[in-house]
């Protein structure tokens, strides 16, 4: 499977590369991560902020390759995260962890499952690592 294959089955759409859009998403991801350290917020909110960062980086990395998820299709978060292997070279093991965090996000958002401090910390650590990779691969000079 490739990004082009995902276009052919309707999971992705081609889009012009927009450096300003990519920069905005990356900066929004950085703001979300910075807010994680705000005192007085619990694991649910810390997780939500970190996960939002992961999703924004996934969307920015697709945009840097000239793609976006098909928002009229279910599972666009899953598609964006799974594409990180192609769009940023994220290793399979990391993709498995990120997908587990996506599933936890779904349980929390749609079933009200609480987020443990451990899961929130894992999400934050994965977010920091992903943002580090994004900083190298999504800079305006590289797009």
Please count the helical segments.
7
The largest beta-sheet arranges its strands as 1-2
**Helical content band:** 55-70%
The domain tally reads 1
Q: Tell me the span between the first and last alpha carbons.
A: 23 Å
* CATH topology group: Four Helix Bundle (Hemerythrin (Met), subunit A)
C-alpha Rg (nearest Å): 15 Å
CATH class: Mainly Alpha
Average pLDDT over all residues:
90
CATH architecture descriptor: Up-down Bundle
Secondary structural class: mainly alpha
What is the H/E order?
HEHHEHHHH
Explained architecture:
This is DNA-binding protein. One of its GO terms (molecular function) is DNA binding. This protein has about 140 residues and is mainly alpha-helical. It has one domain (about 5-135): Nucleotidyltransferases  domain 2 (Four Helix Bundle (Hemerythrin (Met), subunit A), Up-down Bundle), CATH 1.20.120.330. The protein has seven helices and two strands, in the order αβααβαααα. The protein has helices spanning about 5-10, 20-35, 45-65, 75-80, 85-90, 90-110, 115-135; strands at about 10-15, 65-70. A two-stranded antiparallel ribbon has the order 1-2. It is globular, with a radius of gyration of 15 Å. The model has no long low-confidence stretch (mean pLDDT about 90).
Key descriptive features of the protein:
143 residues, mainly alpha, Four Helix Bundle (Hemerythrin (Met), subunit A), two-stranded antiparallel sheet, 4% strand, globular, DNA-binding protein, DNA binding, DNA-binding
The gist of it:
The chain is mainly α and 143 residues long. The chain has one domain (3-137): Nucleotidyltransferases  domain 2 (Four Helix Bundle (Hemerythrin (Met), subunit A)).
